[in-house]
Amino acid sequence: MPQAELCLVTGAAGFIGSHLCERLLRDGYRVIGLACLYAANFQVPTVSLRYFTVYGPRQRPDMAFHIFLRAIYAGEPIVIYGDGEQTRDFTYISDVVQANILAMTRGEVGAAYNIGGGSRVTVNRCLEVLRQVTCQELRVIHQEPQYGEMRHTYADISAAQQVLGYEPRVTLEEGLAAEDAWFREVILAGPRPGSGAGTAARMQKNG
Asked: Where are the beta strands (DSSP E) in the chain?
């Protein structure tokens, strides 16, 4: 069996990086990150984690669930690209924190681990959960799928489970309920007296 051609990915992050890696792997490339390369060649003790769609309280304003919640409470429509049956592996923030701590104490130097929520969920299912936790009716508008968007993504977390002892603990229902509670308390309430520019402004500044 011929060895797959190696492709080094440097500086690719977020939407572009994750989808680039998925496409390269599907086309038969072996994808390696810069951290793994330094570990192999210069013995820099690195451990890499690949996060899959992280969400929860303090989520960035440009992320989907934050955008959805803002639209819901503003009485505005939620724009969905495609039929909503595309799937994602959503990972709650406390599970990501757990994975980082485990990686520091148990991770193998030079290794990379997928960190996900443990299941594929459709966007339509996410909307139904948001309807339940917010007790609001949702207005949804469907538009044409965005070019280059992956139809399905799913994290194979078997290596993280076996080596790190990682196990996602927070269900989508629990996680979205927590994000909704934070959104109502912090974002909808607005800046509080003596808070300077306000929690939302600090959140945006700190990412």
From this structure: 6-9, 30-33, 48-51, 54-55, 78-81, 87-88, 91-92, 112-115, 121-122, 140-143
How many Cα atoms are found within 13 Å in the side-chain-facing hemisphere of 115? 28
Cα separation, 159 vs 178, in Å, equals 28
Q: Which of 48, 38, 53, 31 is nearest to 113 (CA)?
A: 48
Domains and CATH numbers, the chain: 1-45 (no CATH), 47-206 (3.40.50.720)
Calpha distance 187→43 (Å, rounded): 45
Q: Can you tell me the distance from the alpha carbon of 126 to that of 122, in angstroms, rounded to the nearest whole number?
A: 7
Residues 6+ apart with CB under 8 A from 195: none
Residue 120 CB neighbour total at 10 angstroms: 16
pLDDT one-digit tens code per residue, 46-91: 888 889 999 999 999 999 999 999 999 999 999 999 999 999 999 9
- Bridge partners for 112 per DSSP: 48
Q: Give percent helix, percent strand, percent coil of the chain, each to the nearest 5.
A: 45, 15, 40
* pLDDT tens column, 104-141: 899 888 888 999 998 889 999 999 999 999 999 999 99
Closest CA to 153 of 50, 7, 27, 32: 50
Give the N- to C-terminal CA distance of the chain in Å, as an integer: 45
